[in-house]
Amino acid sequence: EAEVAQSPRYKITEKSQAVAFWCDPISGHATLYWYRQILGQGPELLVQFQDESVVDDSQLPKDRFSAERLKGVDSTLKIQPAELGDSAMYLCASRRGQGSYEQYFGPGTRLTVT
Amino acid sequence: QKEVEQDPGPLSVPEGAIVSLNCTYSNSAFQYFMWYRQYSRKGPELLMYTYSSGNKEDGRFTAQVDKSSKYISLFIRDSQPSDSATYLCAMSAGTNAGKSTFGDGTTLTVKP
Hints:
With 114 residues, chain A is mainly beta. Chain A has strands at 5-7, 10-13, 19-24, 31-37, 44-50, 53-56, 65-68, 75-79, 88-95, 104-105, 109-113. In chain A, strand 4 and strand 5 (44-50) form a beta hairpin. Helix content of chain B is 0%, strand content 54%.
């Protein structure tokens, strides 16, 4: 069964350093989401891609976060500089596209900022 | 006040028990209602989704939506230790899953 892949699974970084996460969605899925899940809370959407285009980044802290999906396949989320409050699980999810509701989540990257 | 409030738990039940998980919401525009299961150190997986009010059954799981009360529930019959996980409710006004508002989750432990 196809799955969403994410790496690394765990990342520890110091405050003010740069960090990057990678996501490879299920093949053929046009829609890709990045979420942040703080411990004990539900996921919150950071950015949504349709193919290579950003369709919603209203909740992305653009002063420090950036996301790209250059060829409309895999995607990278970057934080620079990292802050203590960025410690969370970063989840990637993909969806086939229009007419398909279900989104499939990857295992996430657990980020700890010290 | 959050748009979606979920019974915080944690919840611990013996194997075979019937489990009830609940969420309330304030946004009357919500039309799609989802339940996700999240195992420790894993991403959420969609268990069930329903559109508007009513019941939906899938095996041991039943989802109920009462839009008049702005209240949704997930029932698990004959609970198993493998059901031990965090359950998240989520809701959206449209079909874009990324626009869902999630509850904070209820952690369930089913003891053998």
